[in-house]
Recover the amino acids of this structure.
C-alpha cells in the first residue's frame, strides 16, 4: 500500500500559539489501482460555468478529461421554421433572440442579406448607422465574454468593471430602439427609426470613457500570474486544425489565421475604415483573450471614424414598395396609407433565388442564407451559427486537460446558446 | 381569406403556402457562371458530375453536382492548390416542398484565394442519403448532424450521426421538412405526456453509459442513476 506524505507550508495562525505546527504525516492511503477506472460526470445543463443551457458529459481519468460529449438543444425554438411562416420584416424580431449578447449584429446581418437578395442599396447614412450598431455590439458581446471568463478563472473585479460598461451600451440600445436586449432595430431597406437627437453624444461619451476601463481590466488580467497560469497553453489548436474544424472569428484569429469577414469580404465600406485585425500566435485561451481585448480597441477606432463620417440624409430607402411611409403621411395622404396597408399585409416580395451573406459577428462568421421562391416569405432561412461550429471543437480542445481547464476552454470559446440551439 | 378567419390555426395546420411563382427560373446570367475559375475547372474535370451552374443574387456562384460524386468534387475543391477551399463554412439543406428534391448546400470559402463557392446536391425524396464530408472537413461533423436531425438526410460514413437539437427519442419526424406542420405532428397533450414520461436513460447515449462504468457503481447508486433518474 502506497502512502503519501504532505507537509503544509502555511502562515502561522496567531491564535494557535507559538509552538503550533500544522499536522504533517500520512493523510490517506492511496490505492495503486484507482486510476484504472474512468468516471463519468455530468456538467450542466443548469450550471453557471457552461454559459447557458449546455450540458457536457465528461469521461474522467482522475481529474483528467478523457472525452467530452456536448449535448445541446435545450433552448431549441425552431426559429428557422418559424421564419418560413413570416414576412421578411417579421423575421427581424426572431434574429435578436438568437444572440441576445449582440442583438444588433443579428438584426443588421439579416436585413443586409435580404437587401442583397432583393438588390436594394441602402442609403449612406443607414450604412454608417449599421456599422455603428454592429461595432457597438461587438464591444457589448466581448465585454460579457470578458467578465464571465474572468469570473470563471476566479477574478471578480473585471466582471464588475465590464458589466458597468455594458450597462452604458444597454442604455444606448434603449435610447435608440426602446429595448435593452430585444432591439429589432432594422427593417428591410433601412432602420426602424433614425438615431434620436443627442444619441451620438452619448456614444461619444462612452467611447471616451470605455478605453480607460479597458486599460484597467488589461492591467488586472494581462500580466496576472493566475490568469496566465490558467490560460496559457490551455486549449491550444493549430492554425491548420482551426480552419479544418471551422473556427471563425476571434477563435480562428487567435490561432494565427488572418481571416476577418470585414477585411476579406468587405461590406458597408469596411475597407475604407482604418483598423487592424489582431492575430494570435499560439491558439490557446490566452491568445483568444488577447485577440478579443485588441478587437474591442479596434472597434472603438472604427466607431470614432464612423461617428465622424456619419452623413445627413434619409435613413430608409425612398421606395414606397420597400419602406413604410411616415405615420403622419398615412393619416393625411391616401396613397401613403395604401402603401402602408399593402406593405404590412402583403409583405415585400423577393426575387426567386438564394443568397448567402456573411458578416463578421462578435463570435465569428455569421452567415444568413436565404432561399426565396418569389414570395414575401422565405422558403428557407438558415443562419450559419458561428458559436455552434466553434462549440463542436470542444471535445478536441479539452482532451487531456483537467476539468478546471475545461471550464476555461468553454469560456474562452465565447458561445451563446440561444444561437447554437436556435 | 374568409375561411382563414374562421380558424386562425388553419394556416399552421396546412403548412407554409407557396407562391405560384416557384417555377420561374432565375434570369440567365449570360455565360457569367463560367467566369468563376472553380466552376470552369469543375466543368472540365468532372463533365458528368456537374449538372448545371448559375449565378445567384448578382455575384454568388452556385454549382449543382451529382450527389453520387459529392465527395470527389468537394475533395478536389479542397485539395487542389488552384482552388483550395479550406474553410467549409456551412452545410445545410433546403426543402422546397411539393415533391421537389431536397438540396444539400455546401458553402465553401477559400482563405488564401478569397473566393466563395456554393455547391448543391439535389436528392430525390425517395433516396435521402449522401456521403459525409467529415473526412475532408471536421467542421462538417455537427453541421451534418443538424441536417440529419432536421431534414432526415442520412450521411454515409459520418462518425457519430445522432440527433443534435431535438431529443434522441423524438418521434415526430424531421421538423424543417415542408410536410411537417408548425405545431408538430402530435397533439399538445401527447407532446406533454411524452415529455413527462421520458425514460431517464435517454438523457445519456449508450456509449456514455458504457464509459461510466455503470456496473461498477455501488449497488445502492445504480438504480438511482440508471432507472429512477433523479440524478440524471
Amino acid at each position: 500500500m502506497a502512502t503519501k506524505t504532505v507537509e503544509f507550508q502555511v502562515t502561522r495562525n496567531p491564535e494557535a500559539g507559538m509552538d503550533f505546527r500544522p499536522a504533517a504525516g500520512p493523510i490517506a492511503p492511496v490505492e495503486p489501482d484507482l486510476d484504472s477506472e474512468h468516471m463519468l460526470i455530468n456538467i450542466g445543463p443548469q450550471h453557471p460555468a457552461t454559459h447557458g443551457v449546455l450540458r457536457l458529459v465528461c469521461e474522467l481519468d482522475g481529474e483528467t478529461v478523457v472525452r467530452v460529449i456536448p449535448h445541446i438543444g435545450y433552448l431549441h425554438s425552431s426559429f428557422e421554421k418559424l421564419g418560413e411562416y413570416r414576412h421578411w420584416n417579421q423575421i427581424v424580431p426572431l434574429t435578436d433572440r438568437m444572440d441576445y449578447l449582440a442583438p444588433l449584429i443579428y438584426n443588421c446581418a439579416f436585413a443586409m442579406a435580404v437587401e442583397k437578395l432583393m438588390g436594394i442599396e441602402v442609403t449612406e447614412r443607414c450604412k454608417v448607422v449599421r456599422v455603428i450598431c454592429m461595432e457597438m455590439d461587438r464591444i457589448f458581446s466581448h465585454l460579457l465574454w470578458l467578465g464571465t471568463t474572468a469570473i470563471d478563472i476566479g477574478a471578480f473585479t473585471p466582471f464588475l468593471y465590464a458589466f458597468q460598461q455594458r450597462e452604458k451600451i444597454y442604455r444606448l440600445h434603449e435610447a435608440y430602439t426602446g429595448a435593452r436586449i430585444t432591439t429589432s432595430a432594422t427593417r428591410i431597406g433601412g432602420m426602424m427609426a433614425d438615431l434620436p437627437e443627442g444619441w451620438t453624444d452619448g456614444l461619444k461619451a462612452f467611447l471616451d470613457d470605455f478605453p480607460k476601463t479597458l486599460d484597467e481590466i488589461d492591467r488586472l488580467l494581462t500580466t496576472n500570474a493566475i490568469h496566465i497560469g490558467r490560460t496559457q497553453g490551455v486549449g491550444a489548436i493549430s492554425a491548420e486544425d482551426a480552419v479544418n474544424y471551422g473556427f471563425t472569428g476571434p477563435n480562428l484569429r487567435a490561432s494565427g489565421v488572418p481571416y476577418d469577414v470585414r477585411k476579406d469580404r468587405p461590406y458597408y465600406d469596411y475597407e475604407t475604415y482604418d483598423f487592424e485585425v489582431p492575430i494570435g500566435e499560439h491558439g490557446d485561451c490566452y491568445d483568444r483573450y488577447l485577440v478579443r481585448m485588441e478587437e474591442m480597441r479596434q472597434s472603438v477606432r472604427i466607431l470614432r471614424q464612423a461617428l465622424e463620417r456619419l452623413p445627413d440624409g434619409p435613413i430608409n430607402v425612398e421606395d414606397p414598395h420597400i419602406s413604410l411611409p411616415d405615420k403622419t403621411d398615412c393619416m393625411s395622404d391616401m396613397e401613403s396609407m395604401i402603401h402602408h396597408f399593402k406593405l404590412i399585409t402583403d409583405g415585400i416580395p423577393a426575387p426567386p433565388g438564394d443568397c448567402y451573406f456573411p458578416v463578421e459577428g462578435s463570435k465569428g462568421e455569421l452567415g444568413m442564407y436565404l432561399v426565396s421562391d418569389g414570395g414575401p416569405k422565405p422558403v428557407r432561412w438558415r443562419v450559419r451559427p458561428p458559436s455552434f461550429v466553434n462549440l463542436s471543437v470542444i471535445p478536441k480542445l479539452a482532451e487531456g486537460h483537467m476539468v478546471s481547464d475545461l471550464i476555461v476552454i468553454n469560456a474562452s470559446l465565447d458561445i451563446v446558446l440561444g444561437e447554437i440551439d436556435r | 381569406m374568409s375561411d382563414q378567419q374562421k380558424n386562425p390555426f388553419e394556416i399552421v395546420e396546412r403548412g407554409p403556402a407557396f407562391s405560384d411563382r416557384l417555377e420561374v427560373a432565375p434570369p440567365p446570367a449570360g455565360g457569367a457562371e463560367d467566369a468563376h475559375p472553380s466552376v470552369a475547372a469543375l466543368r472540365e474535370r468532372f463533365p458528368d458530375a456537374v449538372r448545371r451552374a448559375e449565378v445567384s443574387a448578382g455575384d454568388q456562384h452556385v454549382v449543382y453536382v451529382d450527389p453520387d460524386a459529392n465527395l470527389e468534387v468537394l475533395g478536389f475543391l479542397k485539395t487542389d492548390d488552384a482552388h483550395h477551399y479550406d474553410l467549409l463554412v456551412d452545410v445545410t439543406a433546403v426543402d422546397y416542398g411539393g415533391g421537389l428534391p431536397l438540396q444539400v448546400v455546401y458553402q465553401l470559402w477559400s482563405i488564401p484565394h478569397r473566393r466563395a463557392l456554393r455547391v448543391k446536391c439535389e436528392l430525390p425524396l425517395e433516396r435521402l442519403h449522401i456521403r459525409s464530408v467529415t473526412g475532408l472537413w471536421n467542421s462538417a461533423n455537427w453541421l451534418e448532424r443538424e441536417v440529419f436531425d432536421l431534414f432526415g438526410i442520412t450521411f454515409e460514413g459520418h462518425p457519430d450521426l445522432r440527433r443534435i437539437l431535438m431529443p434522441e427519442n423524438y418521434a415526430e419526424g424531421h421538423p424543417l421538412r415542408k410536410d411537417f406542420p408548425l405545431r408538430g405532428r402530435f397533439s399538445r397533450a401527447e407532446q406533454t405526456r411524452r415529455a413527462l414520461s421520458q425514460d431517464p436513460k435517454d438523457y445519456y447515449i449508450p456509449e456514455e453509459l458504457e464509459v461510466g462504468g455503470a456496473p461498477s457503481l455501488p449497488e445502492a447508486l445504480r438504480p438511482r442513476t440508471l432507472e429512477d433518474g433523479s440524478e440524471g
In short: The beta strands of chain A are 2-6, 25-30, 39-43, 55-61, 64-71, 186-187, 190-191, 353-360, 365-372, 378-384. The radius of gyration of chain A is 25 Å.
